[in-house]
Each structure stands twice: as C-alpha cells, then as structure tokens.
Amino acid sequence: MCWVNALLQQMCTMNLGSTLIKSRRSVRKYQNTPVSDVVIKEVFECARLAPSARNSQPWIFGAIRDKEMLNAIAKLADNGVFIADAPICFAVFGDVNQTYYLEDCCAATENMIICLQGHGIGSCWVAGDKKGYVDAVTSLLKVPEPYKLVSLIPAGVPAEISSPPKKAVEDVTFFEVWGDSKK
Ligand SMILES: Cc1cc2nc3c(=O)[nH]c(=O)nc-3n(C[C@H](O)[C@H](O)[C@H](O)COP(=O)(O)O)c2cc1C
User: Fold this and answer.
1) Which of 28, 62, 111, 136 is the S-S candidate for 91 at Cβ 3.0 to 4.6 Å?
2) What percent of the chain has a predicted confidence (pLDDT) above 70?
3) What SS3 state is found at 181?
C-alpha cells in the first residue's frame, strides 16, 4: 500500500468515538481525586440519552460518593471489592416490567463508561442483575420496585490500567455468511 493510501486509511479510522472506545480498558485502581460535578452531570446526560427499546427509557441512575456507602456496596458486591477505594460509584437500575430493560440498561452503562473515558476517568463495569447481591444493594440505596440493579460503575482517575488480550477481528467477524473468507 502506498503511503498516501496508508495515511488515508489511518485518518478514516481516527474519530473521537472510536478513539475513546479503543482506548478504554477496565480500571480497578483509582487515584484519590474526586470526580467533578461537571463530569457526573455529563455521565448522567450520556446515560439518559442511550438508545432503548421503544424509547421506553426504563432506568434510573445513581452516583454514590459517600465513603461509608461505597464501603457497604463493596462488602455486598463481592466481585467489586475495589468499589471501596473508588471516589465514586454509579449505579444503573432497570424497570423489570419493561421487556428489554436489561439491554437498555446495558446500553446506558456503556454510554456512561465511554463518557467517563472521554473525561480521562477510568471505570469498570461491575455486574448486577444476575448476582446474589442485587436486592441488598437495591435496598441499601433505597431504590424502590420495580427497579432492579443492572450494573455498578466505580470510577476515578486511573492509578493502574491493565490490558487483557482481545480476540482478533478476523476471528469474530464475518461478511454475508459465516465462514466466507472474502473481506
Ligand atoms: C456485563 C459485565 C459484567 C462485568 N462484571 C465485572 C465484575 O463484576 N467485576 C469486575 O472486576 N469486572 C467486571 N466486568 C469487566 C470485565 O471483566 C472486563 O470488561 C473484561 O475483563 C475485559 O477487559 P476490558 O474491560 O479491560 O476490555 C464486567 C464486564 C461486563 C461487560
């Protein structure tokens, strides 16, 4: 490939959205710096603007900064113990009476994570929904029925970033029908 084509190809793949998505990794260690109110507001904005089935918007979003609350959530959510050391943890709740609440809330969760990434704030998706601690976290945060915890998103300025390996694009994609080698 000549250098002009190579440059053009590179320029085509450079845009804010894909740059943010490609640079994101789950962050589980945070610096002790608070996340600003401006960023929190933006995260809520990006959350509420996520796509949802039939535009049902079956969600509510929380931001927890109180240290005692963070500790309590971390104790309950055993696979998110690092929540205790995060300056903030967002929580996404879905209305279980809406058929697609899970998909909708996952879309909102990813929007929030990418928004944080754009502000230089690392985060990690911590599971809700299928976990045994869902009811305990929901009542701790005094969230009423019919809302169910879908995800927790501890966030902060990264203190450490890991980079787990990803599958190669050619191994997970296809054109027209699976197995077609023409790409
Ligand atoms: C639905 C979902 C649930 C997850 N739950 C947890 C979790 O409970 N605890 C955790 O440390 N990471 C959790 N993760 C983060 C994944 O471990 C992480 O995305 C994966 O290892 C890939 O790493 P990366 O995010 O850096 O690309 C979850 C991610 C998703 C999408």
Assistant:
1) 62
2) 91
3) coil
Task: Name the residue at shortest CA distance from atom 2 of ligand 1.
Answer: 127
DSSP class per residue in 74-128: HHH-GGGGGGGG-SEEEEEEEETTSTTHHHHHHHHHHHHHHHHHHTT-EE--EE-
Q: 156 in ligand 1 pocket by Cβ < 6 Å?
A: no
Give the mutation target among 125, 129, 134, 172 for probing the ligand 1 site: most ligand atoms within 8 A of CB: 125
Place of tokens 């929030």: 112
3-state secondary structure at position 158: strand
What are the pLDDT digits (tens) for 162-176?
A: 999 999 999 999 999
d(CA 148, CA 59): 9
